[in-house]
Design a protein that fits this description.
Residues 231-241 have a biased composition (Acidic residues). The chain is mainly alpha-helical. It contains 8 helices and 3 strands; from the N terminus they run H-H-H-H-H-E-E-E-H-H-H. The model has no long low-confidence stretch (mean pLDDT 85).
């Protein structure tokens, strides 16, 4: 990525999203909220509200920059590599699928590696606790500003495939840009750290859901005992009469 591309991408695009978002939310209930919460609130389960695009694009770009480092690329190690090999067969198959996903995103958008800890938050379904089948890595693509946060996934890696991300360096050769990103820029250290945090957060959330479920069950049992005691009391009063 050339200095010209970086300065243009960050200075003209990323910065504009941030400035426009600040103007949109100033004095509203969104002002002061964490950016991730603004994204979820304004995505509004697909019925997108005005601030969403700027909020999501501001977050997406920050995440994109942090996905890279000078002299990056190569191959990950540790738990990340183990999970990639488990979920995609090999690192080479993963890289091929990621490149293909990014190359085939029609128009503007993003390609992502994400940790899928639960099922989608669907209005007409009760979502069960995450199963072992859910706790895995997935590759997804998203149009425009959409990102995996709105699907309740944990993003680990992204590549920006909006044309402004690569046109100055590669013109219309998107696949060449994607290969350069994967082979020379990806920071696998950053991705590994994100995976570690994602698994810890998912485990905390699952424990909290289990705790709430246990409390609800105990509350129902307690209510049942109170009803039984009330009925017994009525019966004793009748016998006394």
């Amino acid at each position: 990525m050339s200095r010209e591309t970086f300065e243009y991408h960050w200075g003209k695009h990323h910065r504009t999203y941030v400035e426009n978002l600040n103007k949109q939310i100033s004095g509203t209930e969104l002002d002061g909220m964490p950016l991730e919460d603004i994204i979820i609130a304004t995505y509004n389960k697909g019925d997108i509200l005005p601030a969403f695009n700027n909020a999501a694009q501001a977050w997406n770009h920050e995440f994109f920059w942090d996905s890279m480092k000078p002299g990056g690329g190569g191959k990950p190690s540790g738990d990340l590599l183990d999970m990639i090999e488990r979920d995609f067969g090999s690192f080479e198959k993963f890289a091929e699928e990621f490149k293909s996903t990014a190359a085939t995103q029609f128009g503007s958008g993003w390609a992502w590696l994400a940790y899928k800890a639960n099922r989608l938050d669907v209005d007409n379904a009760v979502n069960p606790l995450a199963s072992e089948k859910d706790k895995r890595l997935v590759i997804v693509k998203s149009p425009n500003a959409v990102n995996p946060l709105v699907w309740d996934y944990f993003p680990l890696l992204t590549i920006d495939v909006w044309e402004h991300a690569y046109y100055l360096d590669f013109q219309n050769r998107r696949p060449d840009y994607i290969s350069t990103f994967m082979e020379k820029l990806v920071s696998w250290d950053a991705v590994s750290l994100r995976l570690e945090k994602a698994k810890a957060l998912a485990a905390e959330r699952e424990e909290e859901e289990q705790r709430k479920k246990k409390e609800e069950e105990e509350e129902k049992l307690s209510e049942g005992d109170n009803v039984e005691m009330y009925l017994d009391s009525d019966s004793d009063d009748s016998e006394a009469d």
